[in-house]
Amino acid sequence: MLLDATASGLFPIAPTPFTPSGAVDFASVDRLVERYLAAGATGVTVLGIMGEAPKLEPDEALAITARFIDGFGDLPVVVGVSAPGFAAMRALARAAMERGAAGVMIAPPPALRTDDQITGYYRQAVEAIGTDIPFVIQDYPLTLTVQMTPQVIRRIVEENPSCVMLKHEDWPGLEKISALRGFQKDGSLRPLSILTGNGGLFLDFEMERGANGAMTGYAFPEMLADVVRLQKEGLREEAHNLFDAHLPLLRYEQQQGVGLAVRKYVLMRRGFIASDAQRKPGSALTPAARDEVDYLLARLARHDGRARL
Amino acid sequence: MLLDATASGLFPIAPTPFTPSGAVDFASVDRLVERYLAAGATGVTVLGIMGEAPKLEPDEALAITARFIDGFGDLPVVVGVSAPGFAAMRALARAAMERGAAGVMIAPPPALRTDDQITGYYRQAVEAIGTDIPFVIQDYPLTLTVQMTPQVIRRIVEENPSCVMLKHEDWPGLEKISALRGFQKDGSLRPLSILTGNGGLFLDFEMERGANGAMTGYAFPEMLADVVRLQKEGLREEAHNLFDAHLPLLRYEQQQGVGLAVRKYVLMRRGFIASDAQRKPGSALTPAARDEVDYLLARLARHDGRARL
Amino acid sequence: MLLDATASGLFPIAPTPFTPSGAVDFASVDRLVERYLAAGATGVTVLGIMGEAPKLEPDEALAITARFIDGFGDLPVVVGVSAPGFAAMRALARAAMERGAAGVMIAPPPALRTDDQITGYYRQAVEAIGTDIPFVIQDYPLTLTVQMTPQVIRRIVEENPSCVMLKHEDWPGLEKISALRGFQKDGSLRPLSILTGNGGLFLDFEMERGANGAMTGYAFPEMLADVVRLQKEGLREEAHNLFDAHLPLLRYEQQQGVGLAVRKYVLMRRGFIASDAQRKPGSALTPAARDEVDYLLARLARHDGRARL
Amino acid sequence: MLLDATASGLFPIAPTPFTPSGAVDFASVDRLVERYLAAGATGVTVLGIMGEAPKLEPDEALAITARFIDGFGDLPVVVGVSAPGFAAMRALARAAMERGAAGVMIAPPPALRTDDQITGYYRQAVEAIGTDIPFVIQDYPLTLTVQMTPQVIRRIVEENPSCVMLKHEDWPGLEKISALRGFQKDGSLRPLSILTGNGGLFLDFEMERGANGAMTGYAFPEMLADVVRLQKEGLREEAHNLFDAHLPLLRYEQQQGVGLAVRKYVLMRRGFIASDAQRKPGSALTPAARDEVDYLLARLARHDGRARL
């Protein structure tokens, strides 16, 4: 089943579990899948920035993708295919789709500056992978340094019928969601799914501005799914209460560069994966940082029993 | 009285209050001073990035500085003197000190890359302003794009006896505080005050890592002063409880580009300043954003009565 | 007399002459003016990036501007007013115009990325300085990191009637000149003077693509004026012959960071200024570099007698 | 035979020839090899930035490498292995060495800023590819935005015994060569081959500063080899005369972004390759640019008969 503009809910950004010796830990992939589904995931995204994709051999990348696809069954799996060249992008995109992926995600290379450069890049990328593969725009200026206005996103969507989703992680970005939804109200933009990233730091309000869900990797996917659901049900206070309880930890996890180490550590403590090892070159938490995360988990457990270890 | 390495507590980053027509609102400066002192400020920083300094005429900048100096009495006033050229930096630094400032703050220009470029810049800046003016290093890579390792900060401190403080706002930056404090334990770095910025987003743990206080402009300086005090008194749980209650709003205020509009709006709602106007070119909150801030204030008021309007 | 879209010929980018002790050397300003006029200059630009403007006190900047205005008589003097804030930009622009400047030049700040940010910046700048001051867009991505498409330049020109000139120094940039001249042919862009910079590295072909002249500081303004004139007279071979003879030295002078030291050294050797001193922080040529420049001058003198010392 | 620190002469940066339909043109690879050898090449570098490497499938990249290795016989072939991840870097490096490459070239990723980040990256890269593969540092800040001081280069060389060469293309960079050669004179740096790139724009003086040769892709490798040879023979005037004759075209070819199109066009006109096609997304010369290149070739032919078509 192909990804389309009606996608919503929670698509966790999956980390790649490794054993301490650096091998891909497929048993942990299976556990991750099970826990994501139990948490309420409606899809999943693999081989993103937080999936340590550049450290994977091409065969490994496809094997991991296939394992997630098997586990998620009918639910869509989105595959990150950003690459410095279109040959590699095309090869991975076509291979992933053949194995049953629902669509791909494409981030712009950091050198892009002008509006025309950005829209031109997406045209070329679509030409490279083929117009039959649904794709997600990743809009993440904090890391990628590429700034897309709402008008540029609209141009990409309008010029490429296979564009079905925006992974929105501009920061600040609430007004961008409102602008895009405004374009749709005035008829100048066709339907587009908007899932939000950026670690979930503004998920509480992003849902109120019109997002369809979350696509991010916070180590408590249950909270992300719940906030998305509560907001859709109109239970605003409940959504914010839950979100606020998690915010101290979420904020800690959302640190650039350190975030993945925090995330894997918490996922390991929670039994989602067997080890928090990163393939080299990786980063690890200092003892002081581990103590801080443990402290945040203990404090969170008072509000959300699922944080009890 | 000159700033020295024993400085601690809370130095709010002061905004510059304007009237809706764009004039400097000196009555609001007086009110700000009064409220900062009541909140527990032990000093103040003016003409920083959030003080709209580049929009001020030189005479206005000095007049504002003088007003804060008068209001703060014996407490130290730090003046931001970052400038594209050393002539302007020197002129402002000397004039501010003559009027009674305690020291100046210098941010590195964005073009600096290598360790030698950064340390060379600070040597030249000190030569320009004179070795008799105590200065603060501003380490803020998120906005300035200049990355200083702990080793580079140590070199700047060691090469320039007039360096007395680090405004620490690297992100993530907890390990940097630990590294600098480690240098001091092993005798390779002399005493240095570390006040933390970055909107206060990690103040809870920064104090535990060895910071001496906060230098940032969150619109509830009372909370910043309290967290600093509680951590110094060893009341960890109380510090985190208070911090966590504020985090949803603090996180909202800490958005790049939008932050000053949020901050001025909250300060206006709280009666610290008469208007949230920014001098042109400024940004303003949309109605949707104002509603969100009001909602966050109302939620905060349940935990901290000082947020009641 | 105000600058307008008919401006053409050679506007040298003037360095600021200093004495070895760092004082402004006004006698050398007078000599520069005399030599520029003898070389065929049709105007001059002061306080540009190569004019060490950020090292000047505001009074000095105005005094230098006034001296050039006096010396150039009826010929236009353009004043660089780029500044981190609109207050300083406005103050300098208004003061310079009062003293008789013909227009100002505005470079975009390096943080600008999207098309809308760039055009928005120029609207705000014009609002700040006033719509009555003719201005020049400086398009210099190599140093400023801001990338303007021909479409963005057209938008700036169309939105701001006081825009009369483009200082074109994109690299590569020949196609940009052709694109802008194409807009004028198809009626979508009003008349606009295009003078080219970038050290003159492509002046030979820029004139053939439609530039109106040069605005750059190569230490042989005679060559720049001659190439502009020869190309206008249709003497293509003569223009290229002269240009090619100078290219080895011109290329050497056009090095980022070192260029000003080379330029001032050659101007000093040629008697245009008394000293090649830069105000601190400056750079100086190593003995090896001076030997290389002397060698290039000696080689050039075989083709162009004006290089004889 | 492995690359070592005695390497010198001319290592052309080879383009990848394509047919107009986008297939790799192996017949043109053979012609290129033949012409490079006739021009005096002492080695060759493949899969560099100008080799359109990111557009190649992994199998194609290896096939091209193998073809050059076969053609160059005993002469060293250096393979560019820069990649966003160490998995891909390792895979390509090991495979290329197995097929007979002499060494690899590694460029730093653009995000690196501090001295420690840069040296840390090279340590990790060497750990990834293995300490048995000789490697070349690519120092190209104009495109890569990474700035390495001479001290940082020395640290990389000293920390990694397998580092045997610097591809020097800093700009300006003459003083960097002198600084590195100075380190060797004072005994603080072991022998290191320095070949220079940057299109050859300063090859004339780079040889005089101590470079061992050129590693760049100017479409007249004969000139590069001759200038290297003449300088080594002490024939300074002859070297500069030849260099200066080529400088107008060389300068035209050295334009960022357009350079490869110029280079392939000239190589095609000279019979080195059958077509100037770039694999998509590529750039092509406009008719105006082609005319300019033809004009430059015709002018060059008056001084250097090899430019006659």
TrEMBL record, chains A, B, C, D:
- Entry superkingdom: Bacteria
Q: Where are the transmembrane segments?
A: none
| Statement: the UniProt record of this protein carries the keyword Translocase | no
* Gene3D superfamilies linked to this entry: Aldolase class I
Which Gene Ontology molecular-function terms are recorded?
4-hydroxy-tetrahydrodipicolinate synthase activity
Q: What InterPro entries has UniProt attached to this entry?
A: Aldolase_TIM, DapA-like
- Annotated residues that bind pyruvate are located at 215
Question: What single Pfam family name could you report for this chain, choosing any that match?
Answer: DHDPS
Q: Which UniProt keywords apply?
A: Lyase
Q: Which GO terms describe its cellular component?
A: cytosol
Among its keywords, does the record have Disulfide bond? no
What CDD domains does this protein map onto?
A: DHDPS-like
Q: Please report which protein family the annotation says this sequence is part of.
A: Belongs to the DapA family.
How is this protein named in the record?
Dihydrodipicolinate synthase family protein
